[in-house]
């Protein structure tokens, strides 16, 4: 940023695209625990929504406290994230999807992490996974019982995606050092980003589930699942992330990650076939086997296929 620039402690940047039905809850969850405007910048960054009016929502719910910026054309979510990072003025940056929200205590817990250990580059908590109706499904992994530095963070985070974007806060200086999200990735760009950060900085983990991640068919990931694009981008992300890993473990961790997501993709393919979506099921199955054809993946596929055929 040009100097001198007034830096608040926080920048809460809320990227949106056609998610107006969820946006009021996202904004309200921040305002309920927000300090003054001098301490926390809050801004909605809209990727040229076409079915709702996020500016009106930001004005009505924000009451003058929430800024708004609209792209002149739809740029895609990664470019919209880039705009969020460029417009963020705070030392700590929180990207909160317009269809997600945070629980009371989130900012207090995250602020404590950076205050206690200056070398922390990012801090994250567990997430609650819900559907579009708000029904709770599951929680992300709990790595340790107590708040503090996550031991072997790089190895944990490279093996599988454990961090939902609304649950993590990153120092702006870290983005300035490492760059933004990888534009080669249409999905899994967040996973690659967190692994890249863990390769260079200490990571703090908060075991309390203080962020809520919404899974629905209209999300970026949801739209790509039926075409196999989601799995294809995961494959690319794993290959990119291998360069962030120590050479002694890169091949092993990459193989394990590919096996994990190949099994998951095959389960998705079977679910689509059960829904009589033959094209979607076959597309995802093809990408699953491109991701990995290890004996464990083939055995998993055989067992699940047999189970589907049994009465």
Question: What's the layout of helices and strands?
Answer:
Elements: E1 10-16, H1 23-31, E2 40-46, H2 54-62, E3 67-70, H3 77-87, E4 92-95, E5 101-102, H4 106-116, E6 120-131, E7 136-139, E8 148-149, H5 153-159, E9 168-171, H6 172-178, H7 189-198, E10 202-215, H8 220-225, H9 229-241, H10 247-274, H11 278-291, H12 295-309
Parallel strand pairs: 1-2, 1-4, 2-3, 6-10
Antiparallel strand pairs: 4-9, 5-10, 6-7, 6-9, 8-10
The Cα radius of gyration reads 20 Å
Mean pLDDT comes to: 93
Distance between the termini: 63 Å
The largest β sheet comes out as: 10 strands, mixed
Overall geometry comes to: globular
Roughly what fraction of the amino acids lie in strands?
A: 15-25%
How do the helices and strands follow one another from N- to C-terminus? Answer: EHEHEHEEHEEEHEHHEHHHHH
Spans of at least 5 consecutive residues with low confidence: none
* Count of DSSP strands: 10
Helical run tally: 12
Structural class designation: alpha/beta
Portion of residues within helices: 40-55%
Report on this structure.
There is one protein chain. The chain has about 300 residues and is an alpha/beta fold. The chain is built from 12 helices and 10 strands. Strands 1, 2, 3, 4, 5, 6, 7, 8, 9 and 10 form a 10-stranded mixed sheet that branches. Helix 1 (about 25-30) links the parallel strand 1 and strand 2 (about 40-45). Helix 5 packs antiparallel against helix 7, helix 7 runs parallel beside helix 9 (about 230-240) and helix 10 runs parallel beside helix 12. The mean pLDDT is about 95.
């Amino acid at each position: 940023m040009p100097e001198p620039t007034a830096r608040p402690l926080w920048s809460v940047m809320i990227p949106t695209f056609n998610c107006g039905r969820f946006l009021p809850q996202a904004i309200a969850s921040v305002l309920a625990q927000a300090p003054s405007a001098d301490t926390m910048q809050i801004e909605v960054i809209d990727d040229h929504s076409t079915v709702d009016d996020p500016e009106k929502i930001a004005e009505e719910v924000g009451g003058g406290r929430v800024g708004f910026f609209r792209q002149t054309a739809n740029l895609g979510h990664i470019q919209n994230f880039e705009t969020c990072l460029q417009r963020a003025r705070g030392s700590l940056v929180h990207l909160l999807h317009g269809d997600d929200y945070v629980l009371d205590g989130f900012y207090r817990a995250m602020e404590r992490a950076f205050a206690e250990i200056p070398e922390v580059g990012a801090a994250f908590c567990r997430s609650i996974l819900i559907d579009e109706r708000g029904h709770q499904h599951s929680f992300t992994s709990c790595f340790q019982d107590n708040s503090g530095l996550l031991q072997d963070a790089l190895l944990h985070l490279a093996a599988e995606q454990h961090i939902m974007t609304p649950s993590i806060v990153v120092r702006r200086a870290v983005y300035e050092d490492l760059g933004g999200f990888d534009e080669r990735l249409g999905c899994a760009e967040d996973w690659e980003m967190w692994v890249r950060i863990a390769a260079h900085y200490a990571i703090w983990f908060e075991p309390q589930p203080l962020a809520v991640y919404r899974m629905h068919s209209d999300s970026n990931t949801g739209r790509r699942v039926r075409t196999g694009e989601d799995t294809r981008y995961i494959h690319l992300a794993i290959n990119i992330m291998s360069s962030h890993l120590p050479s002694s473990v890169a091949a092993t961790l990459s193989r394990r990650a590919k096996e994990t997501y190949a099994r998951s993709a095959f389960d998705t393919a079977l679910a689509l076939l059960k829904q009589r979506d033959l094209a979607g099921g076959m597309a995802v199955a093809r990408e699953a086997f491109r991701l990995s054809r290890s004996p464990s993946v083939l055995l998993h596929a055989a067992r699940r296929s047999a189970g589907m055929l049994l009465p």
